[in-house]
Amino acid sequence: MAAPLELSCWGGGWGLPSVHSESLVVMAYAKFSGAPLKVNVIDNTWRGSRGDVPILTTEDNIVSQPAKILNFLRKQKYNADYELSAKQGADTLAYIALIEEKLLPAVLHTFWVESDNYLTVTKPWFASRIPFPLSLILPGRMSKGALNRILLTRGEPPLYHLREVEAQIYRDAKECLNLLSNRLGKSQFFFGDTPSTLDAYVFGFLAPLYKVRFPKVQLQEHLKQLSNLCRFCDDILNSYFRLSLGDG
Amino acid sequence: MSLVAEAFVSQIAAAEPWPENATLYQQLKGEQILLSDNAASLAVQAFLQMCNLPIKVVCRANAEYMSPSGKVPFIHVGNQVVSELGPIVQFVKAKGHSLSDGLDEVQKAEMKAYMELVNNMLLTAELYLQWCDEATVGEITHARYGSPYPWPLNHILAYQKQWEVKRKMKAIGWGNKTLDQVLEDVDQCCQALSQRLGTQPYFFNKQPTELDALVFGHLYTILTTQLTNDELSEKVKNYSNLLAFCRRIEQHYFEDRGKVGV
């Protein structure tokens, strides 16, 4: 494919190419399917766009949101799933739905809502990559967006209080991690020996949780006990992202 | 509910057997109930039929407000009230009836994943169609939702609900979707379900599970509900094994027992 594919996304840290789950999903998929992606990391100049990241730009298209970007890449013949059977393709959709429903609220909470984590890690990291004065506004807005999403999707009566919602979402997330670990078992990837879309999604959501150093770490501790999921993340990092490690 | 309260409820649930007078509450069938609530209610009814537990369906205009979680349907068993399929499955399990005990860990994970898929895509698409598609809202939803109440309460309640649903759609990223994209998603979901079902009678071969009840509830309601256009049901009709699946469950669990589900 001659047309250059450029991806704007949030940058990396703690050994990851990107700290943002959705950006990481797209980067992982591109590596798995062999798509030549030029990654433009958002920095604190005014050049980059910040809303709705990750965004894929080609000569005549702008595509946002991971699901749409992956569809676009598939249409361009960069398909990581062609060896999957129809049932495995269906399983992929189902497990992605499971991750978005059960794991995502807790990941959002760990990064954006838990105040110790947010104030000491997330906010400074993102603020340093956004130009002033937007750096004063945007992290706060992202945090509110995350809280909103959690409360609107999970905070229905009788769970009125945030504390109870928190307990429920962390329980669901731990159960989801256990289910993923059971499903992965001893295999290298979720469907055989080659990575596919599901591996990209799982990696995208688990790797930041696994690697970023947080003060409040209950979900991270749980993940670290599931050694096959940790091995899965490390394997992908070592095989596919070794040459382009982010800053420490 | 909190962990302690849940453990407590489980204990109480386990203590008593299933009574004869268990009731399921939903909104008024003819005039008020909407597609998504009907689907949820049918899923619970199908699940209870599959477990062979008797249940009486009672229609009340204020079912949504009676429910402890604000969602229908809810069941009243003994002196406990439990709403929504997930908690009801747990409650029934505490009483000693379960459809998914025979599954191994990987199958249980798959079952949970597919249930989330249905909730994530089918239920959200139904909500979108009902509350965010202007044609449907104007012609069907507003009129139905507020029908038991006098003016102006009927309009106020309908607008309030619409605002809530739109907020939620925006938060999960469905706010900017067009109807065509939503129908695409429904098609994808049906394709995944169809591929998973294949030629088996139920999703986990010989025995139905809560996943079968949930899928039946949604698909049957989509197929039999009259909307402004038929696009939604057409998407489902493309998959003949799903149609056969619905027919099979309807015959087996509803017609044979002398009850009609919807």
UniProtKB/TrEMBL annotation, chain A:
Coiled-coil stretches: none
Metaxin glutathione S-transferase domain segment(s): 173-236
Keyword 4Fe-4S found: no
Keywords assigned by UniProt, alphabetized: Membrane, Mitochondrion, Mitochondrion outer membrane, Protein transport, Transport
GO process annotations (BP): mitochondrion organization; protein transport
KW Mitochondrion (keyword) present: yes
Family of the protein in this entry: Belongs to the metaxin family.
Species whose genome carries this gene: Neovison vison (American mink)
Matching InterPro entries: Glutathione-S-Trfase_C_sf, Glutathione_S-Trfase, Metaxin1/3, Metaxin_GST, Mito_Protein_Transport_Metaxin, Sam37/metaxin_N
Listed Pfam families: GST_C_6, Tom37
Subcellular localization, as worded in the UniProt entry: Mitochondrion outer membrane
GO cellular component, one term: SAM complex
Protein name from the UniProt record: Metaxin
Gene that specifies this protein: MTX3
From TrEMBL, chain B:
A single cellular component GO annotation: SAM complex
Domain Mitochondrial outer membrane transport complex Sam37/metaxin N-terminal: start-end pairs: 41-162
Keywords from the UniProt entry: Acetylation, Membrane, Mitochondrion, Mitochondrion outer membrane, Protein transport, Transport
InterPro entries in the record: Glutathione-S-Trfase_C_sf (IPR036282), Glutathione_S-Trfase (IPR040079), Metaxin_GST (IPR033468), Mito_Protein_Transport_Metaxin (IPR050931), Sam37/metaxin_N (IPR019564)
Domain named Metaxin glutathione S-transferase: residues: 187-249
Keyword flag Membrane: yes
Subcellular location(s) per record: Mitochondrion outer membrane
Gene Ontology biological process: mitochondrion organization; protein transport
Record-linked CDD domains: GST_C_Metaxin2 (cd03211), GST_N_Metaxin2 (cd03079)
A family per Pfam: GST_C_6
Subunit-level organization: Interacts with MTX1/metaxin-1. Associates with the mitochondrial contact site and cristae organizing system (MICOS) complex, composed of at least MICOS10/MIC10, CHCHD3/MIC19, CHCHD6/MIC25, APOOL/MIC27, IMMT/MIC60, APOO/MIC23/MIC26 and QIL1/MIC13. This complex was also known under the names MINOS or MitOS complex. The MICOS complex associates with mitochondrial outer membrane proteins SAMM50, MTX1 and MTX2 (together described as components of the mitochondrial outer membrane sorting assembly machinery (SAM) complex) and DNAJC11, mitochondrial inner membrane protein TMEM11 and with HSPA9.
Family statement: Belongs to the metaxin family.
Function: Involved in transport of proteins into the mitochondrion.
Name the record gives this protein: Metaxin-2
